[in-house]
## 1
Amino acid sequence: MTDVIVAGGGPTGMMLGAELTLAGVDVTVVERRPSAELVGSRAGGFHARTIEVLDQRGIAGRFLEAGKTYQGAAAGSAMFDVSDFPTRHPYTLGLWQNHIERILAEWVDELGVKVERGRQVTGFVQDADGVDVRLADGATVRASYLVGADGGRSVVRKAAGIDFPGSEATQTKLIAEVEVGEQPPVGVRTDESGIHGLQVMEDGRTFRVITTEHQMGPATEPTLDDLRAALHRVFGTDFGVHSPTWISRFSDATRQAASYREGRVLLAGDAAHIHYPAGGQGIGLGVQDAVNLGWKLAQVVKGVSPESLLDTYRAERHPATARALKQTMVMGLLQQQDARHVAVNDLMDEFVAMDEPRRHVAGLLSGLDVHYDLGDGHPLLGRRMPDLDLETPDGPVRVFELLHAARPVLLDLGTPGGVDLGPWADRVRLVVAESSGPWELPVIGEVTPPSGVLIRPDGHVAWVGGGMGAAGGGMEAVGGGTEAVGGGTEAVGGGTEAVGGGTDAGLHDSLTRWCGPA
């Protein structure tokens, strides 16, 4: 018997395994591949918010050292500059998935996460108390919860009977790593069918090839002959491709699970959503799913929070991911090069020359504008906490350093000693600190500094004390009026001791909602 079984040991599954382990939950990650080494480069890349998430766990540097950063994010032919965004990581990281998985595998091994490779989930039966998970080798393992992080063709999602609505594919592409008999033209070529590209890989011998098929390919694994035919149609030659490391076919189909949970079974990553891979969103979306779900599932497993906390996973991640999926659909259209799409691209280039459209789209592409609906209030509420430099009695510290243990943090930025956490003292880390710099959010701009902030383990703000609204105006959060917390309206002015003195029932209710009842 284990607390949680995670089906799938890709980036999403490994990240979720790490989050649950940090929270003290017994988790087993089951991965069908026999080795941690991923054959071929596959997908790759992280945007700013995903790098921040890794920074919150103290491991961003490992990925940055292995990859290459780029100033900006692409959408079609347009580049969206994020260098002026208030983040320590105002860039995109280029890093292939095989390196991403290697680094994550090293980290989860350090944490002691149990990963069983060469084993595959084939089905399950759940009851009121747990899930009996069937494996391909005939074994059955009992767990309190099962999470399907087993990709777009998820066995777990299908067995759970969860609908997967969305848009059908309109085109297919082949992607491969091969050796060549004649030197190909490295770079990108576009025609009316779409985009085609060749790139030399790290070994200097292998080439990564992406080409759009003239007709929709079948839902089967492609062959080397399929790749040769596609290349010959576009380039007039197949460059003598041979010795493929891997060949795959993907489409622009976009789908999202109607529900992220069925009883004691949940979905994350590609099992919950698939999309056209342009823009490098896929791995990052899965990592962000994992850090949103991990601490919530851990609190439910440990009996700290009611099972209803799991409902907030879908409520938060589904709309945030839906926005990103719409963006990938647009990017897929912008890569087509017939006269109509060229005209749209030209218009997009004009838009991105304007600051507001550029900031809006760059916020979406980077993930820095993600806003979970936790009710009305300060602009920080529901958004990622800025990685501010703080001065504490123990010395200077960055906000993200306080999140390395994946525990909630309450920042007391008002009168020292103004907070008594009471029954939450063993669940929430209280940090008395000062911040002298500006409080600035991507896209929104500078906001009124609060007197206190409750930060969830995923880095999103659950409660704000003090001034409300943008810098220079807005509503007052503490001492009167009403404050929406977790979707409801809570009276402010009575209850738990507030940051900086006074009283704030909103803090009490937020602690109850996100950190478990007293």
Note: The longest strand covers residues 242-251.
## 2
Amino acid sequence: MIIISSVFSTSLWAQSPTLILKEVSQKTSPDLLKQTRQILQLAEYIGVDYSEAVTAGNISNPDEFAEMQQFASIIIEKTNLLANDVPNSLTADALQLQQAIADKSSLDVIQGLSQKIRKQLLSQSPALVLPTQLLPKENVKQLFIENCSTCHGDLGQGDGPLAKSLSPEPTNFTDQERALNRSLLGLYDAISDGLDGSAMRAFSELNDQQRWSLAFYVGSLAFEPSAATLEHIKYDANIELQQWVNSNPTQLLQQNVDINRSQLERLRSQPELLFQHAQSPISTARTNLQAAVDAYHANELTQAQTLAVSAYLDGFELIENTLDAHDSSLRKSIEGQLLNFRNLLKTEGQTTLVNQEFASILAQLNQAETVLTGQSLSNNAMFSAALIILLREGLEALLVIIALMTVLIKTERQDAIKFVHFGWISALAAGVLTWWAADNLISISGASRELMEGGAALLAALVLFYVGYWMHSKTQGSKWQSYIKNNVDRHLNTGTLWGLTGLAFISVYREVFETILFYQSLLTQAIGSTSSNEQVSYLIYGLLAGIAILAVIAWLMMRYSVKLPLARFFSVSSYFMLVLAFVLAGKGISALQEAAVINLTPFPFDVSISWLGIASTWQGLSTQMVIVVLFSLLVIRNRDVK
């Protein structure tokens, strides 16, 4: 009975295939990591293929034996090259391995030495944040045929059209004896970087998701599903996914008594089972926070901050709305601590403080988990959450769209309204398409999502600020009539109209993706409840109610805004645009801070007002203050000109 857990970076909103390898830190350069991973790969390869080179102390395959010697020499070269960055004993172990091969020692001796080398390197390698989802099996099989079958054959038996012309011949992935000694990490590295001294090239044109999927696929070919059912496999925190990936099956059987052969074969043969029991967002937050603290203790400060960001974006953020429905103050407290925690990780020598803050966050996460697992959302709470999410995310976008349409009506350019409609409708389609692509085709991490949302919010804020000032400058009825007469037809040309389409698109697109994320999280909780059908129904009711309310707001605004006198309309609209620019600027800065693109400096006291986009950070407040001051100066200047 086993579990593969702890280092899943789970996204319940879509179980997105986040495949990130943290390769760069303050102490670990990309080149050092690449060299150590190549040593890992070569050492494993020797342990796997030595049995084909030497039998009972005699050389049984001269080509394979020569390859073993060559790989051992490369390991020594690389360990000498990295002498200042790896344990001193590693060089001695590499020399001992080379000598053992020359002496044609037993397979047990060779495998013991190769595993010893790998263990030393893995113990000081940066933590891996591994996949939460693989490509569908049929897609991976086709990927294998397109890229690997020429050498390895369609079934992975090492009998492709080019196999006989290669030395050494390609690996037979269906050979179970070999597979029992191959780790998934070794397979991934071979696909990613190739294998020195062989015909195996690096498939750098494939993305991380494709390479990991191929590694799990070829690692499954030697194993047939056992008769055991999924219910017979228990999941237990004794084995982490990182251990599952780093260790070969033989090592796993030796390391953990809870794994038996049939269970191991089932999980190797059907790797998709590993991803059906992904961690909850709170567990993901805990895991990444622990990894961040471990990285901090190892002086890997950049990696520590990256993992702390992931703890929030790929973990806690996904259950914020649900926790809000139970305990809003607890949600705010955890969010603030998580966002501020990474500031502690920027400076060395704060180990005690980091440990204290880590313990405090864990205690609050445990409290949140108790709240969420102790009681599911009631039907009314599910309805309210679904309603509030749509109103909160949709109202800003709706207000921008209505304002644009009203301006066009006031300028007697109703024919141009279709450009605004095209913008928001295409944004809805693009948002859904982006979510689908993130779920099925590409990897979008929480940081990338926040970067996208933050950039769009700041761009929209900039445009709205300009539009607001422009409208304020036309608050005199005579000025506006003159402007219409002399400028509207000239300025509202095709290029400008497509600009309106772009603003409508940006304003809606940034909200759609996040709305879907939160609804996916609610839907996951609803399906997991004891009354799943009823809960899903109330979620849908909340969604429909939100749409109805937004439609009423749109109708009221369209009905009454067009009846306002020109001067009053432009005066009201200009300040309305300013407020929207103010809100979006604050949210844009917060999103970029969450993605660790902009520094986060806490304000001395809490002034947060979420619906106004106000967060208690110097960066956000300063940006919003600049908007207010600049708009005020422009208004004063405009009055002086009058």
Note: The chain is about 65% helix and 0% strand.
## 3
Amino acid sequence: MFRRNVFGRFIVDDFLTDAGTPSRRRFLQGLAASGLLLTGGGMLDQRVWANPVFAAYPFGLGIASGDPSADGFVIWTKLAPLPLARNGGMPMKAVEVTYEIGSEANMRQVVQRGSALARPELGHAVHVEVSGLEPNRDYFYRFTCGGERTMTGRARTFPAANASIERAHFGVLGCQRYEDGYFTAFRHVADEHFDFIYHYGDYIYEYRMVRPNERPLPVARVMPGDPDEIYSLADYRHRYAIYKSDPDLQLAHASAPWLVSFDDHEVDNNFAGLVSEQNIPPEIFALRRAAGFQAWYEHMPLRRASIPNGPSIQAYRRFLYGDLAQIDVLDTRQSRSDQPCGDGSHAACTDALKPDNTMLGEKQEAWLAEGLRSSGARWNVLAQQVMVMRHDRDPDPKKTSYSMDKWDGAVAARQRLFDTLDSARTANAVVLTGDIHQNWAGELKANFDDPKSRTLGVEFVATSITSGGDGADMTKAGQVVLQKNPHIGFFNNQRGYMRHIMSQGGWQADYRVLDRVTTAGGAVSTRASFVVEAGKPGMSPK
């Protein structure tokens, strides 16, 4: 049926009809017989590796679920029998992966089965968009390929839009530099059995490997191999493989569905739009951004709508949790203005006051404003990356300093956001933030120069999983900053994550901290808790 041409490729030589065109039936039969067609696919597909035999366990990077809706969610895995080898030890062929969705953890009641292709174009990642399930309930899932099976993961659908919901219990976390510590916090996160988890970004760090004695901060563990700073798609894939091989991280992914976003280190430190930290020509940096975004998509439980288009990706999106919450996941990197005054921290930067400065870009700003105006949810949640509230960072009581990478570097954009919250009469606004490797809690004031001005919402800043090492409960700089920023009510410099409980009557934010991360097995405790009463802007310690 097939012969090879001079280039060694298969060509069809006996599938022509009388009219001189291929007979589709005979053509597909021939492909199926040759193993080049995915059986049951109903369409011509790329070459498929039938009956694969792997060099090692193929699911070494774990499983995950994410982007839940009222009738489903995404389930994810990635074939990588040799995670740190070229192409994860996979041949350049598509592979069929089967999956099961169960209503019980023991998988005795399977409610859906199916298959998907793990394609080489996406590094053999699988993203299955599951639908047709019941709202607001747990489901369980697993994958099988080549006679190998994954662990069973727990996912959960969101409540139906406008359904009356009394309570939700979720986590917020991010910033997990490999060399700075062990991912013990993720094991504690898995034990929480959250309804969902928001990851605010900095899932990986793009820097070259740090070796012991190269910096004052201890190097808790050294990345395998000798990786340099990452630029190519292969580089980014390798870095994710190092991180995702961690068993504690895998447990956290398998424990609950994740809403994921990215910050800067998924591509390049402090990048802004197509402006890189090193001022690389934009058309060149676009290639690196495209590689970073593709690798991020490949390794996250995201829907098809977020497949990158070159250096662009649809990252901002909205989730409705019944009538309890509208959750807007924002993107503060892709369309933002370049950081004014050369980035860094400054006492007086007039460019930070430019009226056209933006953190979200015009399109995303309009989308967010319209969503806030039309929201009927009890809580309106802005899940984003960098600190919104004004933050004088200078430890000298007589000086000021503001970070140009935060919303302090785009004062007009912050004011437009605050004007929207005010004019839309946004109910119970809560901002969830990360990025700066410390715990903070504060209030969004209509006028930060007047502590008595109206409170438009609250902001809870989660610390890092590991970035920054063990840390300490309080620092001298932290004490001064609290005195200089009366709208900020809490600071802590330990590692960990946040636990949030929102209900119709109120919101509770728990700061969960570890006693250490530079050695394994750190213990977790609640350092502080704050409550927000529904209908009364502002927070108070519990």
Note: Confidence is low (pLDDT under 50) at residues 1-44.
